Amino acid sequence: MSAAIQFNKVSLKYGTKADTVEVLKSISFSIGIEEVVSIVGTSGSGKTSIIMLASGLENASKGSIKINNQEIVGLKENELSEVRRENIGIVFQSFYLIPNLTAVENVLLSLEANQKFNLEKDAEELLDEFGLSHRLHHLPSELSGGEQQRVAIARALINKPKIILADEPTGNLDSVNSESMIDLLFDYTKRSQTSLVIVTHENSIAKRCDRIIELRDGQIV
Amino acid sequence: MARLFDIQQFRLINKYAIRDFSRSYKKLWVVISTLFVSLLLLSLTFSVKGALNSEIENNSKELLGGDILVTSGIDPLPSDIIDLFNTLGKVSSAIEFGTMISKQGESPVFTELRAVDNNYPLYGDIETIPQSASERIFINSQKPSVLINESIQTLLKLSFGDDVVIMGQKFEVVGLVSSVPDLAESAVFGEFAIISMGSYEQFGLDSGGSFLDHEYRIKFKNSNQAKEQEELVKSIVAYDDSIETRAPGESGQSLNRVIDNFSNFLNLVSVSAMVIAGIGISNTLLSFVNQSNTSIAVKKSIGFSSGFIQSMYFYEIMLILVLTSVIAYLIGVYSPLLANELLPEALGIDLEPSFSFLGFLNIFFIGLLVVLIFSIPSLYSISEIKAGALFRNTFNPVSLNFSLKNIAILSVLIIILITYFVFQTEQKFYTVLYFVAFFTTMFIFYGVSKLLILFIKHSYKFSTNSYKIAYRNIVAKKSLAPIMTISLGIGLTLLLTLSFVANNLKKEISDSIPSMAPDLFFVSIDRNIQSDLESFIKDIDPNVELEFSPMASASFISLNGTPVEEVVSENNRSAWVVRGDRRISWSEKPKLDNPIIEGEWWEPGNENEMFVSMDSRAAYDLGMKINDKITLNILGRDVTGVVKNFREVDYRDISINFAIMINKAFANTMPYEYVGTLKSELPPGDILAKVVEKFPNVSAIKIDRILSQISEVLNKVFIAVTAISLIVIVIGLIVIVSAVLVQTTFRRYNNLIYKILGVDFPTILKAMTMEFAVIYGTLIFFALTVAMISSYLVVENTLQLTWQFDLGLTLWILVSTAVVSFVLILLANRSIFSPKVYPLIRNE
Q1: Checking phi first, is residue B132 left (phi over 0); if not, alpha (psi -120 to 50) or beta?
Q2: Where are the domains of chain B?
Q3: Residue B666 — very low, low, confident or very high, per pLDDT cuts 50/70/90?
C-alpha cells in the first residue's frame, strides 16, 4: 500500500537553545491511501503537532515528511500552500468559519483557493447533503455549533482532498451532534476514497478507525 | 503585483476585496475618514491655487490694464512720445497719487486717488454702484465728481450726492467703486477714489510731490504682433532709465508669488495632515489584521498564500483610496466657487472650477505614496500570522513588519514623496527643511513615548489601584502612549508654533508700535510751505513733537561700476533698496536712533563730492563695503559717491528712516521736498482737519488707520492659518480615537476582570485620567520646546522681530487641546465603563 502521509524520524522543538521543549521526538509512521487513522494520547503528547506538521502549517525541526510522496520539509510558504490546496482538507475543533462570509461562501473559499470558479451549485449540493439547504446564505453567527461544524467539514471536503486532517472535530459538540458529525465524515471519506487522520480523545471514535496511533510524551507508544 | 496581471487571480482579489469592504467598512472608518480629510485639504489647495493662477494668467491684460504699461514717475512723458504710442494703438493715461479727502465735520482720510482719461479702462470694466456711475465722472461741469470705495464711504459717513474736498476743490460723490480691472491694493485693503483726468487738470490738483505716478497704458492695434510692439515701446522709452515698462505676463507676478507661498504652506500642512492620517491608517490596518487573524489563518490553512491575502487587503485599501480621492478631488474642483464668496469683492476675481485628469492623478499619486508608506508595515505583518494557531486556539497579536526589505521600500517611497512634493513648489529649500523638521519631530515624539514608558517602568510605584491600572495601561505592549504622543504631539507642536509666530507678529503691530509711533505721517510737503506748516501746527499744539526730513527721489544705478541688476539677484532680501525709485535724505549729523556700526560720519561741507550712508542690513545683504563706489540717478543725473558708513536702522518705530542718506552739503544743491511725523496729545484727526483746510495740498497718513488695516488683514490670515492647522489636530484626534477604539476590546476585557475583582467605576476613571495626564504632560514639555525653538527661529530670523513668550495663549491652547482630547477619548471609551460580565462567563 503506497502512503498518503509518511513521517520519517520527525522531531519538533520549540523555544530557544537554552530552553527547549521537544514536542515530537524522532517519530516515524506512515498512513496509507484511503486509510482511516486516529491519533490518541494525553494532552501535550503531540497529537495536534502531527496534524500541524502534516498540513505544512508547522515546520519540522528534523526529519522528513512526505505527502503523497512529495517531500514537504524545507518547502517555501507558497509551495506548502500549493501542497495543502491540492492534497489536504482540515477540520478544526473550533470550526473557524470566516465570520463575515455565509455558509456557502465559506465552502466556496476552498474551491476558489484552488482556482475553481463558478461552482456554487457544487457547494450548495454538498451543504444540502449535510442537511444545511435552509442555511446556505446564513452567516456563522446565525448557525448552531453543529451546523457550523458541518459547514467546516463541507469546506474541507468540497475540494475533494486526498487527505483529511481532523483535529478533535467533535470537541465542541454535544453527543448527538458529535455522532452524526463522525458518521458524516466517515461516510464521505469512504465514498471519496480519501485518507482520514483524526485526532481524538474519544475511544468510540478511535475504535471506528482502521488504525490507532497512540502518543505519549512526543513518542509513538 | 503579478497576481493583479493574472486575470483569474485578479477577479478573485477583486471579488474578495469588494465583499470584505462592503461587510467590514465600519472597521475601516478611520482609514476612510482621515484619508478623505487630508486628500480634501490637498485637493482644495491645488484647485484654488490652480484657479487663482489661471485667473491671473487669463486676465493678465485686465490686471495690467493694457497690452503694456509705461510708468514715468513724477514727470509726464513728453507729448511726442505719447504721439508715438498713439500710432501703435489706443492709449489711456492715468495719474496716481496719495492725497487727503475730507468732509465737513469728519477727520480727513488719506487716499489713493486715480485720475483717469476717457479711454480707461482699456480692458475689463469698472464695477460701480450705481452701474453707470463711472461715466458721470467724465461729465464736464463746474462741480466735478468722484467715485469712492466703500472704506472711504464708511470713514467719512458719505452718501451719494454728498460733497467731499480734495486739495481744496469740492467734488460730488457719484458712486461707489466696487472693483477696477487692474488690481489696486488700496481698492481692496484701503482707501481708493477715482476722478477724471479732466478734473485733475482743470483744477490743478498736482501737489508737485514725489509720491505721484504718471501711467500710460496701450492697447495695440495689431495684437498679433504684441511682442514686437512691446519691444518697440521699450526702445522708445529707453532714453530714460527711470521710465519703467511692464508687460501682461509680469503684471501678476507678485500676486502669483504670494499665492505660491501661501499654497506652498497649505500643501505642507496637507501633507502633514496626510502623514498623521498615515499613522492612523497604519494603526487601523494593523488592528484590522489582528482582528481578522482567524480569518487570515483559515485562508492560509485552506491554501491561500500570505501574498494573496496581502494583495487582497492592498487592493481593498486602493479601492478606498480611489473612492476618497475621487470625492475629495470633485469637491476640490468646485471649491473655487466657495473661494469666490470669501475673497474681497474689490479684488474683482471670479474663479472658475476646472477639471483636469492630471490634477486628479496628482492628488491620487500623493495619496498613493502615503497609503503605501503606511500600509506596507501593517499588511506585511500578515505573513506573521500562523495558521497553526488555529489548532491551539491561541493568537498572538502581530506587530508592524519592519524587515530590511520593507525598510528599503519605505525609504525609496519616502524619498519619492518628498522629491515629488519639492519639485512642485517654488520654495524648494524650505520645503525640504520642513520635511526634515517634520520627520525629525515625529522621531522625537516616538522616542519620547519610549522614554516615558522606560521612565515609568523604573520610577516609584504607588500602591493605589488607579495608579496600578494606569501604569499597566502605559507600559502594556499595545499602549496608547506612542500613537498619542506622535499624533497629538505633531498637531500640538504645529498649532503652538503657528500661534506663537502669529501672536508675536500681532503683538509687534498692536502693542509695541503704537507706543512709540507718531500719530501722523506727512508725505510730500513742498519745501516752500514746510516752515509755515510747522508754525501752524505748533500754534495748534505747542507741545507737539514734529520732525521733518528733506527728501529727494533717486534710483540705484551701479555698485563699483557694475550695473546693479548684475550684482543683486531678485531673491536678495534687500533687493527692494536698489529696485525702482528710492527716497533718499540727508542731514548734517547722524540720527540718534540710527547708530553707526561701521565706518564714520562725514565732516560738514564738501558740496562737490557725494558721501553715502547705508542701512547696515541692506549693505551687508547687497555685499557692500566701506569706500565702495555707488552711482545713483538723482533727478535724471548719474552721480557717483563713496560709501562712508553703515547705520543700524530700525524701521519698526515708523519714524522717518531712510536706507540711503547722503551728505547735506552736496544735497543742498538739488530740489527736494519734505516728509514729516507728528505726535500730539490732541486728537490727530482734529489737527489733520485744520491742516488740510489751511494747506489743501498737504497729505498725511493716520498711523492708527494703517495699523488697523494691517491688523485686519493679518487677523484674517491668522484665522485661516489657525483653522488649517486645527485640521492637523483634528486628524490627530481621529487617529488617537482610532487607537483608543483598537484598544477598547482589550480594555473592556481588562475592566471586566477588574469589575469582577471589585474595582469600581471612579477608580477606572481616575486611572484613565492619570494615564492621559502622564502622557499629555510629557508631550506638553516636548511640544512646547519644539514649538518655542521653531517659532523663535521664524520670528527672530525670518521676520526679524523680537520673540516673546505668551503664557496666557500657551495655557489656553494646551488646556483646550487637553480637554477636547480627553473628552474624545472618554467618549470613544464609553463602552468600557460598564462592561457586561455575562459574555466573559460564556467565553464569548
Answers
A1: alpha
A2: 14-67+257-425, 68-246, 427-514+697-844, 545-679
A3: confident
Residues on chain B bordering chain A, Cβ-to-Cβ distance under 8 angstroms: 8, 11-12, 19-20, 23-24, 294-295, 297-307, 383, 386-388, 390-393
How does pLDDT run across A48-106, given as a tens digit for each residue?
A: 999 999 999 888 999 999 999 999 999 988 899 889 988 999 998 888 898 888 999 99
Beta carbons within 8 Å of B385's beta carbon, 6+ residues apart: B289, B293, B296, B297, B300, B306, B395, B398
Phi/psi of residue B325, nearest 5 degrees:
-70, -35
More confident residue, B210 or A42: A42
Residue A100 and residue B23: Cβ atoms within 8 Å? Answer: yes
Residue type for B287, please? S
pLDDT digits (tens, 9 = 90+) for B589-634: 887 778 888 898 888 877 788 899 999 888 888 889 999 999 988 8
Per residue in B287-299, is it b (16+ CB within 10 Å) or e — as a string? Answer: bbbbebbbbbbbb
* Least confidently predicted of A137-151, A157-171, B46-60, B409-423: B46-60
Contacts of B8 in chain A (CB under 8 A): 115, 117
Query: Does B843 score more than 50 pLDDT?
Result: no
| Contact list, B303 vs chain A (CB under 8 Å) | 81-82, 84-86, 110, 113-114
The pLDDT of residue B338: 83
Q: Which residue of A has its CA nearest to B12?
A: A112
Calculate how close chain B gets to A183, using CA atoms only, in Å: 22
B616 by Cβ neighbours in 10 Å (0-12 / 13-18 / 19+) ranks as buried
- Per-residue HEC secondary structure of B68-126 comes to EEEEEECCCCCHHHHHHHHHHEEEEEEEEEEEEEECCCCCCEEEEEEEECCCCCCCCCC
Q: Which of B684, B608, B660, B651 is nearest to B801 (CA)?
A: B651
CA angle B65, B69, B72 (to 5 degrees): 130
Give the nearest chain A residue to B9 (CA atoms): A115
- The rounded distance, in Å, linking the Cα atoms of B151 and A58 is 81
Which of A109, A113, A93 lies closest to A101, judged by CA?
Answer: A109
- Kindly report, residue by residue over B789-798, the tens digit of the pLDDT: 988 988 887 6
The pairing of strands A195-199 and B244-246 is unpaired
Work out the average pLDDT over B734-743.
67
Cell of A94: 473550533
Give the residue from chain B lying closest to A43, CA to CA. B392
Smallest Cβ–Cβ distance between B295 and the set A98, A113, A114 belongs to: A98
Which H helix or E strand runs over B572?
none
ipTM surpasses 0.95: no
Question: Domains in chain A, ordered, with CATH?
Answer: 3-220 (3.40.50.300)
Question: How many CB atoms are located within 10 Å of the residue B607 CB?
Answer: 12
Q: Which residues lie closer than 8 Å to A151 by C-beta, 6 or more apart?
A: A95, A97, A103, A106, A107, A127, A130, A132, A135, A140, A143
Contact assignment for B298 to A96 by CB distance below 8 Å: yes
User: What distance in Å separates the CA atoms of residue A5 and residue A7, rounded to the nearest whole number?
Assistant: 7
pLDDT level of residue B431 (50, 70, 90 thresholds) = confident
Tell me the C-alpha distance between B734 and B717, whole Å. 26
Radius of gyration of chain B (CA): 34
From the list A9, A10, A96, A114, the residue with the least C-alpha distance to A53 is A10
Instruction: Pick the residue from chain A with its C-alpha nearest to B393.
Output: A94
Whether the pLDDT of residue B298 is over 60: the answer is: yes
Rounded CA-CA distance B768/A48 in Å is 42
Query: What is the rounded CA–CA span in Å between residue B700 and residue B678?
Result: 10
